[in-house]
Amino acid sequence: MSYTKVIPGLVRANSDNIKRICLSQGRFRSTVASKQHKEVEGGKEEQQLVECTVVKAVQADLISQTKNNTDAQTRKIAIDFDNTHEAYKSKDNIELLRSLLVFKLCTFDFLVDKNKELMDLSKKVFGKRLFERLMKMTFYGQFVAGEDHNSIKPLIHKNQAFGVGSVLDYSVEEDLTQEEAEKKEMDSCVSEAEKESPGVYLLAKCVDHREKKYKAHRQFGDRRGGVVSARTYFYADEAKCDAQMETFLNCIKASGGASVDGFSAVKMTALGRPQFLLQFSEVLVKWRRFFNLLAAQQGKSGMDALEQKLELEQLKESLTKLGVGNKDDIENWFTGEKLGSSGTIDLLDWNSLINDRTKISNLLVIPNVENGQLEPLLRKFTVEEEKQMKRMLQRVDVLAKHAVDNGVRLMVDAEQTYFQPAISRLTLEMQRIFNREKPIIFNTYQCYLKEAYDNVSVDVELSRREGWYFGAKLVRGAYMYQERSRAEEIGYEDPINPDYEATNRMYHKCLEFVLEEIDHNRKANVMVASHNEDTVKFTLGKMNEMGLSPTEKKVYFGQLLGMCDQISFPLGQAGFPVYKYVPYGPVNEVIPYLSRRALENRGFMKGSQRERSLLWKELKRRLLNGQILYKPVY
């Protein structure tokens, strides 16, 4: 499998086993985002509309896709998110009443806090058949499209008729107790060597070199804790991973058959044993930290990731002094390619020093700063663990190839920070292979992370150098409470931005950077996955400034099914590529998903009455106009 070549390249190896990825040179723009960033608060920068129409257009210059000197004309588009006729024209009155009921129920703390117990009780009292009918009339009908890929087609086709696409997501989860979840997590995140003889296989005279963040901790073994908007998978065995891969394959096929240019969502933790993701993440973080240490030695600490350019000769001297390799070895690392041809090495050059070795576990090598040696994270991996690592990569490869074959784009969801470096790296390797002709693989960036901007800018720069299509989904993040609690209790730096305002600034900074990349190079693509109306308005304002037309389909918008229709449908009807995250699965098997939707909507609805007020407004408008039996026409 070609993208298993993700192994740090400072490992001493037989030269016959080494294959380096060569980065093409070219003329690149600055990687620093514009400092003329202007915040949008409450949509103040957006032109207010007095007409009833959903769209208002004015003339503006278009930046040509070929970047020639020909002046073209397009129209600036502003969306009226208060136009309830356009926002809800795809819904009949029963659907509006259902939304009002569900959103109102989500504001009652007792019902939300005890929603799982109440659903279990209802099932016992009413029986399975009546319970399922009640769920389809309320929560299930609001947030879930149907039970299988055939039953969801009517909803997908209806949304498409009103300009809204689909990101299919089979949302079935195991209904585990906390104790069961903790046991599964501990069993799957600790190597067999550590289980058999704790300390014996650890490095440097039995001193544990593993970092606390990247080790499993029983008190946080249930990764569902404090998470309200993301599915969670727990490893059972390889057969279960194969079954989950088949589920994703069916989802990809359903997406290809039900919609044009659809998306399908996948999670890496469903495809293999998380031990590998933990350990690979630790290796990647330590190699980056090693680069930062070398940068600090050259007086270049505290700079943006891509602004740290190490003087090559000084770098060679530092590596030699640290004993990482002898002088000839180090010289060979930076010769025979364009690496260091400018006299400097940046983070991407550093990351490209990778090799291809027979054993996947040989990738788990870290620099020991104290003695300068490259050492394995653990001294022993079983044959079965080697196979498990390879199988995870093979499953990812199968999914990517099926996405290409079915004309579907693959959205890789973000997960916890102790898994995410590995997930992002594996997704990046998929992009390098499958995004050569068009964007197929999309990575997810969580903007509540302090390092979000560095992650986005580094990946964009790599796509620019190597000439493939960058694909990103920007989200605020789903694991904040869990991440903060874990960092505080275990004892490492909180990875989350200090407050919501800081997260908003980070989101807009990352978004602006990608939009500027689209402006300069039409190979970048971004999904603005947000229920925040101000963020959507900010994006529209930037698109208008850049003359970026929605018909170019470089900027997508995404919201969850059953939420924020007043954003999704006006955008879709104005010609913007907008998608609903469409969960599906049997009623009884998506209850964990529905439970989280109730929890998420509790905060969402308490914080804003806007969606409910718009629903009432449209319902009253229809009743006053005699549209009691209103049916969508499409």
From TrEMBL:
Known EC number: 1.5.5.2
Reaction it catalyzes: L-proline + a quinone = (S)-1-pyrroline-5-carboxylate + a quinol + H(+)
Give the enzyme's main class according to its UniProt record, as a single word: oxidoreductase
Q: Which UniProt keywords apply?
A: Acetylation, FAD, Flavoprotein, Mitochondrion, Oxidoreductase, Proline metabolism, Transit peptide
Subcellular location(s): the record lists: Mitochondrion matrix
Q: Where is the Proline dehydrogenase domain?
A: 360-603
One of the record's GO molecular function terms: FAD binding
Which residue ranges traverse the bilayer?
A: none
Tell whether Glycosyltransferase is among the UniProt keywords: no
Q: Which cofactor does it need?
A: FAD
**SUPFAM superfamilies per the record?**
FAD-linked oxidoreductase
Write out the GO cellular component annotations.
Answer: mitochondrial matrix
Q: Name one GO biological process term.
A: L-proline catabolic process to L-glutamate
Q: In which pathway does it act?
A: Amino-acid degradation; L-proline degradation into L-glutamate; L-glutamate from L-proline: step 1/2
| Entry's family note | Belongs to the proline oxidase family.
Q: What does this protein do?
A: Converts proline to delta-1-pyrroline-5-carboxylate.
**Protein's name in the database:** Proline dehydrogenase
Q: Can you name the source organism?
A: Oncorhynchus mykiss (Rainbow trout)
What gene name is listed for this protein? LOC110523753
